[in-house]
């Protein structure tokens, strides 16, 4: 497990690390919604905690794990998803602490909430201002290498998937890091694909 022979080149933050510490190249995420709580399974395994909207006014935030999937697929970055999937980069203690640890997870969760609030207040246009703030917040972390365009694409992909899941009462999301695509299959057997540019 994690032997040097299992290492291969991969574009993104998982270039030369053991296979067991990589974000998956492909995955199926199941969002199971009972109307109040969403449970997430990735490749059939329950991950994370069941989520509610965690506020008096229901706003669909319980589907926000779609943002973590979009960050992983488009940016090659999601310390939260790494933690849920058990693929933190423990073979490198500094990376484990600084890129996959609590502070990085808190930053990612904060970015998700900022996106949610920005969209609520300003709609789906004008992401440039928010993305500039996000890029300042993540400065000093590996994801700082991502361009504003990459961030905007990740945000749009994540929100589109989140909306499709909320509209369909949950569903399946197929993630493909190699082509930057998330595909949503929901209860009405509709397919919604979002591919990065």
Structure in words:
The chain is α+β, with helices and mostly antiparallel strands and 197 residues long. It contains 6 helices and 6 strands; from the N terminus they run βββααααααβββ. It has helices at 65-75, 79-85, 93-98, 102-122, 127-137, 148-168, and strands at residues 26-33, 38-42, 45-51, 170-176, 181-185, 191-195. The chain has a 6-stranded antiparallel sheet with strand order 3-2-1-4-5-6, covered by helices on one side. A hairpin with a 5-residue loop joins strand 5 and strand 6 (191-195). Helix 1 packs antiparallel against helix 6 (148-168). The longest helix has 21 residues, at 102-122. The chain starts with 25 loop residues before the first strand and ends with a strand.
Brief descriptors of the model:
single chain; 197 residues; alpha+beta; six-stranded antiparallel sheet; 6 strands; 19% strand; globular
Write the layout of secondary structure elements.
Elements: E1 26-33, E2 38-42, E3 45-51, H1 65-75, H2 79-85, H3 93-98, H4 102-122, H5 127-137, H6 148-168, E4 170-176, E5 181-185, E6 191-195
Antiparallel strand pairs: 1-2, 1-4, 2-3, 4-5, 5-6
Mean pLDDT: 88
Helix/strand/pairing class, anyone? Answer: alpha+beta
Separation, N- and C-terminal Cα atoms: 35 Å
**Could you give the count of β-strands?**
6
Query: Within the largest sheet, what's the order of strands?
Result: 3-2-1-4-5-6
Helix percent band: 25-40%
The biggest beta sheet, please? 6 strands, antiparallel
| Strand-residue proportion | 15-25%
- Name the shape in a single word: globular
Low-confidence sequence ranges: 1-12
* SS element count, helices: 6
CA gyration radius, whole angstroms? 16 Å
H-E string: EEEHHHHHHEEE
């Amino acid at each position: 497990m994690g032997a040097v022979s299992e290492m291969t080149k991969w574009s993104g933050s998982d270039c030369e690390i053991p296979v067991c510490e990589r974000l998956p190249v492909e995955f199926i995420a199941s969002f199971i919604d009972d109307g109040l709580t969403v449970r997430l399974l990735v490749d059939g395994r329950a991950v994370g905690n069941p989520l509610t909207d965690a506020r008096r006014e229901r706003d669909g935030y319980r589907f926000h794990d779609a943002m973590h999937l979009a960050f992983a697929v488009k940016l090659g970055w999601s310390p939260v998803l790494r933690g849920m999937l058990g693929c933190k980069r423990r073979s490198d203690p500094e990376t484990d602490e600084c890129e996959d640890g609590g502070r990085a997870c808190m930053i990612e969760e904060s970015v998700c909430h900022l996106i949610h609030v920005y969209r609520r207040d300003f709609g789906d246009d004008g992401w440039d201002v928010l993305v500039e703030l996000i890029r300042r917040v993540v400065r000093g972390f590996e994801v700082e290498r991502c361009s504003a365009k990459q961030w905007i694409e990740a945000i749009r992909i994540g929100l589109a998937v989140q909306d499709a899941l909320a509209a369909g009462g949950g569903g399946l999301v197929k993630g493909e890091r190699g082509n930057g695509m998330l595909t949503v299959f929901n209860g009405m057997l509709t397919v919604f694909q979002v591919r990065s540019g």
